[in-house]
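Posting here for the record, re: coenzyme A.
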Amino acid sequence: MPTIRPARESDRDALYSICLETGDSGEDATGLYADPLILGHVYAGPYLSYAPDFAFVLEDAEGVGGYVIGTPDSRAFEATLEREWWPKLRAQYPDPAAIPRESRTPDERIMAVIHDHTRKTSDVYDAYPAHLHIDLLPRMQGGGNGRALMERLFTALRDAGVPGVHLGVGGRNTRAQGFYQHLGFRELERTNGGITLGYML
Ligand SMILES: CC(C)(COP(=O)(O)OP(=O)(O)OC[C@H]1O[C@@H](n2cnc3c(N)ncnc32)[C@H](O)[C@@H]1OP(=O)(O)O)[C@@H](O)C(=O)NCCC(=O)NCCS
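Prediction output follows.
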């Protein structure tokens, strides 16, 4: 049986790999990205660096095979990243602004996220200030591990006095949408490519 424990710095490579191996609407995105680290730089690395108390991994005999990562305060987290995290990545990856959206490669679409200086702080942040990401490798999926990881993070967020948590899920990731809805998340917003869901803690 896999166990859940707090994430540590030595898990960083595993987090980046899992992020990539689940990065195509829940399926393996390894073949999609020329740079195997670019997804992790956006969706995994900053959480381990700046919200380590809200990062948990799932581990079995084969090693770390899943994680849930989040932040209790999305606005403060974003301000920290704007100061500490994005500038280094903006120096490393070019801004694809001049390339028409529809012609961008998957890597360039993530570079656009890295260079997005106009991150909006949505109204949903008031009632649902926390946000999270959860990803499990196939061997860890479907046996209650996703629920167990979510409950571990919910407990940490409740202990920190957080009233609600939101997350984004891709429109094509119907399996994850069903999972979140089953756990009690409800739809808050719908954008071009995805849905924002919220859960009151
Ligand atoms: C989505 C994911 C986190 C779910 O975790 P999981 O371990 O597969 O799910 P669990 O086995 O813990 O399921 C928990 C509960 O949700 C239910 N459930 C799971 N998927 C469901 C679905 N698509 N529709 C309805 N219910 C679902 C289960 O039946 C279970 O119910 P119960 O606890 O009441 O018996 C996991 O499959 C995953 O990491 N997928 C790949 C990466 C990904 O898509 N991440 C999300 C990106 S937004």
